[in-house]
């Protein structure tokens, strides 16, 4: 893990002030190009989704007359529909729910009312992701996104014999990632252990169950039935498209948080946390992915995870240009700016999952780095 220099309280304040200035300058420049960008994404989601569903229908009907052609068409339909779902989930839904486009005054792009195309509700995501994760990024015992309650991926997490099965658990989480998002807010282990009353648990679960019913009805009942006797290829196409979206989302999110250079922090590091301290924790706890414009768009610009964690409510299409200055600021203050190719970053994630399925001790370097942030803030 590359070393980041320890900052004095004065340096920490100056570090925060420079990032605040970048944030303010970017916010002041928001305008038509940002509105045009997100509306192009809306159209791309709509038309690739329509195209994917039409091609899947044609492929299903074609199985009776041209089986070879229909297989190729089915694959194209899955890719189109999967791309639509990925774009809607990552570049549209995730970013809109963060309130990145509230300034436009468009009710269809309002962060408090937008409902996205997965089984989890936007309301629950606003709590678990926007508030808990982005406030307490990588703070052990406060950020439930560390391992999603299933995986031990940092040595500071307690090892249990069940961790030996986590390579399988990780694969299942990847395949069914939208379901992990759906149940995360309900803290099922608390209910299982009797810490949450059953009546309260199911009352909170009710909106999620309604959302699940709508999503399953749309993808696995309504559209397959429209194909009549050819419903099965359409159903399987929808299943495959959702699977592609789950795998891609899992990959991007895990690459953004759980690479070898990403750090976790003790609760003491956020006692009396300053603005500069919060910014520093976001930089040290996040990882970027190098890959070009297509990767940026298809990842919802979470290829710039560092910038997203620094400025979660600014339009994500600005992250690439902001990242140039963020990197300069980090260099001036001796802070490691963690970035790498998708294969490199995901390889590190896979290694973490495999390595920490076995007992391991917290590294003294990692503990010292986390404690240093608290010390600089006078915690």
What is the 3D form? Answer: globular
- Gyration radius (Cα, Å) is 22 Å
Strand ordering within the main sheet? 1-2
Count of discrete structural domains = 1
Count of helix runs: 15
Largest sheet: number of strands, sense, barrel closure:
2 strands, parallel
Low-confidence stretches: none
Beta strand count: 2
Residue share in β-strands: under 5%
Report how far apart the termini are. 25 Å
- Mean pLDDT across residues: 92
Keywords: Membrane, Transmembrane, Transmembrane helix
Organism: Cognatilysobacter xinjiangensis
Pfam family, one: FA_desaturase
InterPro entries: FA_desaturase_dom, Fatty_acid_desaturase
Your description of this structure?
By secondary structure, the protein is mostly helical. The protein has one domain (1-379). It has helices at 9-28, 32-62, 67-97, 122-135, 166-175, 177-184, 188-192, 198-226, 231-257, 275-284, 293-298, 305-310, 319-332, 342-355, 364-376; strands spanning 288-290, 339-341. The chain has a two-stranded parallel sheet with strand order 1-2. Helix 2 (32-62) packs antiparallel against helix 9 (231-257). The two termini are 25 Å apart. InterPro entries: FA_desaturase_dom (IPR005804), Fatty_acid_desaturase (IPR012171). Keywords: Membrane, Transmembrane, Transmembrane helix. This is Acyl-CoA desaturase. Residues 72-339 form the Fatty acid desaturase domain.
